[in-house]
Fold this protein.
Amino acid sequence: MNTVVIITTGGTIAMKYDPVVDGLVPAVSGEDLIKAVPPLKDVAEVEVVEYSNVPSGYMTPQMMFEIAHMADEFCLRQEVAGVVVTHGTDTIEETAYMLGLVCKTNKPVCICGAMRGATDMGYDGPANILAAVKVAASPEACGKGALLVMDDEIHAATEVTKTHSTSCATFASPGWGPIGHVYEDMVVFRRQPMNLQKLQPEALTEDVYLLKSYAGMDEFLFKCLADKPIKGLVVEALGCGNVPLPVKAGIEYVAAKGIPVVLATRVYSGRVAPVYSYEGSANSMKASKIILAGELSGQKARLKLMLALSLTNDNKELQKIFQP
Ligand code: ASP
């Protein structure tokens, strides 16, 4: 039987209700998490490594980067079939995306969490861990990049996002759908994620910011950031890449300081596309050498820019990295 290494990081999956503070708080160790899933013994030899026990809002890109390297280290061992990371669901899609870009291994690197705590009715942690270990132990999961496994669905890290604040069926890949499903007796894949890009710098560039645009937004935040100064900026534009005129001016102000600006969309499905040419459209900001993020959400585009800036500062190279 192959080994699956489970790296625990915290999240609701490792939380219990505390009557003193009247809410869920971190309380379940990595070992206890696994003890709650007896059927694991029929799927794989499981090794547990506790990386942290924090809500996922405490996770940083640096921690995500470290976990990716840990996963790679474990996968070098021949008997290890794959790795599962347990994680809070609030930023799980960011860690999933980082794992997909950074991990060198071809073996499955899966991530899962839970929407209900260990003391809640219908705690979904054990079922999600069991499903994720089944995927990590499955040879068909090799070469599919990082995979998010929740609610018996398998999602590509590049595509998945949280779509509901409390539902157990919160994870979806809008416009694409899951790439596979986990059943009692088997794991079934029906498509291969296509754009499995790798970015593997030695370190991570910090000081990359994300702003979301909205009707009536002004230049204020852009000026604050450009004068800080920062290393890179991602702007979540409206629609397919349009912004209010003061935001265009803000982007131009940032870009004029030599800070790369990536344009993503705040819409949760579809690409940034150069459809319009009116003032404020993506086309109208070409002179600022803005980089279009394709289908990436702002939070994923920010992680990509942090990795990309550690490899190059050249605008043409950055443009290529964002157009796989
Ligand atoms: N707030 C929790 C976290 O992200 C939510 C969860 O795990 O579902 O840590």
Q: What stands out?
A: The helical segments are 30-35, 61-75, 92-102, 125-136, 220-227, 245-256, 298-308, 315-321. DSSP finds eight helices and 16 strands in the chain.
